[in-house]
Amino acid sequence: MNILTDLLSRPSTHAPRAKKKNRGIELKTPEEIAIMRQAGKIVAIVLKEISELVQPGMTTADLDAHAEKRIREMGATPSFKGYHGFPASICSSTNNEVVHGIPNKKKVIRRGDVLKVDTGAYFEGFHGDSCITIAVGEVTPAAAKLIQVAEETLYKGIEQVKAGKFLLDIAGAVQDHAEANGFKIVEDYTGHGVGRNLHEEPSVFNFRTHEMPNVKLKPGMTLAIEPILNAGSRHTRTLSDRWTVVTIDRALSAQFEHTVLVTEDGYEILTDRTQL
């Protein structure tokens, strides 16, 4: 779940305030990491199921109901539901909707849609957080390319994760791959630390900037890396529901996200769907 930078300072409504370590960044213990693996696995299972379940004619409320049911069946609670008043267990954003789309029983999924599904699970005191973009049926070649590059961009960023590297290493890799393929990075929203709180420090930006701290990565950090790519302008606006963010030019948008652990020699993807 993306969040404006100024929201990162707010405590999650679902978890205790994070411990303060390393300028507010919490390094997880082996025991805590083991729990986060379980939280991440729950999220991965739910997103994999949704990707296989989606059909034209379903509603986004159908997907939300499935996600909440499955999260609770696996012993967790939905991270998003009630978070700063958000009413659902997933964010479901379609086509030119960028992030934070609210599931609705009247929002019918159609063939050719570019559907973003973002969800989180709170398990034994820790959160997992991940997002996928789904091509519903046959999409246009332009939409297919956007989805493909958005996913590649996430992994370009993840490949930079290693103790001793910096957030700008992630940001640069993300930005370079997106721009090389003709897409714009949405700069209004960033990734974030994740753990006891759904959103923790640091901000994990997806573009080169000196306006946010260029944190050095350390073993035990857990980061939600989540680039958002637009086919047109990078600029966005928020609709009157105060949640749904859309592109200002109605161009398509795509997003992928994983919760990633920083290790001594690289990274571990805690929400990896390919290992299920």
Strand order within the widest sheet?
8-7-9-14-15
User: Which architecture name does CATH use?
Assistant: Alpha-Beta Complex
The H-level CATH homologous superfamily, spelled out, is Creatinase/methionine aminopeptidase superfamily
Number of distinct helices: 4
Question: Could you tell me the number of beta strands?
Answer: 15
- Percentage of residues in strands: 15-25%
The sequence of SSEs as H and E is: HHEEEEEHHEEEEEEEEEE
Indicate the CATH topology: Creatine Amidinohydrolase
Q: What separation lies between the terminal Cα atoms?
A: 22 Å
Total number of distinct structural domains: 1
Gist of the model:
The chain is an alpha+beta fold and about 280 residues long.
How would you describe the overall organization of this protein?
This protein is of the alpha+beta class. It has one domain (26-269): Creatinase/methionine aminopeptidase superfamily (Creatine Amidinohydrolase). It has four helices and 15 strands. Strands 8-7-9-14-15 form a five-stranded antiparallel sheet. Strands 1, 2, 4 and 5 form a four-stranded antiparallel sheet that branches. Strands 3-12-11 form a three-stranded antiparallel sheet, with no helix packed on it. Strand 11 and strand 12 (245-247) form a beta hairpin. The longest helix is centred in the first third of the chain and has 24 residues, at 30-53. The model is unreliable at 1-23 (pLDDT under 50).
List the helices and strands and how they pair.
Layout lengths: L29 H24 L6 H14 L3 E2 L11 E5 L2 E3 L14 E10 L2 E10 L5 H18 L8 H14 L3 E2 L5 E3 L6 E5 L17 E4 L2 E3 L5 E3 L6 E3 L5 E3 L2 E6 L2 E4 L7
Antiparallel strand pairs: 1-4, 2-4, 3-12, 4-5, 6-10, 7-8, 7-9, 9-14, 10-13, 11-12, 14-15
